[in-house]
Amino acid sequence: MNVLAIMGGILQKVYSIPNQQIMTAELKMKNAKKRPFKWTRELVRLALNDSWTQTEIAKACRTQQSVVSAWSKGTKRGTEEQLKPLLNIYGSKLRRNAFRVYWSLNPENYEKQFFRVEGKVILSQAFFDPRRDQRGKLVKKIPMHKLVIHHQGEGKFRVAIQGRLTFRDSSQELECSVEDAIWNSQISEQMDVKSLLEFVDKYAETKLRDFPSDANTLPFLLRQALLNHGIPVDGVVEYPALW
Question: Please, is 106 exposed, middle or buried when counting C-beta atoms within 10 Å of its C-beta (0-12, 13-18, 19+)?
């Protein structure tokens, strides 16, 4: 085999590698568009809340109204390719609603850690410390603790457990125009509904001892939030209407 033939074979292999990588990337992108879209229900509800009808959504997505009904209830998911007309309109809003950024600050060495938690927020509840003057008159309420609960799909939830950040030398609360920045956050492991209920009930009982009104109402607020988002809750007595 002559030198030119050898060089030609080498060049062919070199140039074939990028082409193979491009084809692989294109295949992955194509397959991704065919996978069930995780936020189908939320996307469809954005359109419905913006005065679209299920029939109009079905026409735009080239499917049937019964399919759109299943999407809106969360019993079925569309693909990214099917939902592209809605994603073009509501994708940016969906992305804004689909995750939150949290952070924690180590009080000893001021080491920072940042978290990005996906999932629709179904409950965000702060607990306030009433500050009073010497005569006992209420001056202001300062949020000191907070729970944020994300629904991450498939019956799974994650909780951001937050405490107010303070300066070490003065114990003065950290202030910021962006409310999310004033909290020191811990992020829980994923939980199912049963574990979530047990966790929050225990949190109310132990962490909120100095906040008796919040300790008593938090279990109700959680169950209300779950039911309002279409999530079944054991132990709730149902009185269905006759339609």
Answer: exposed
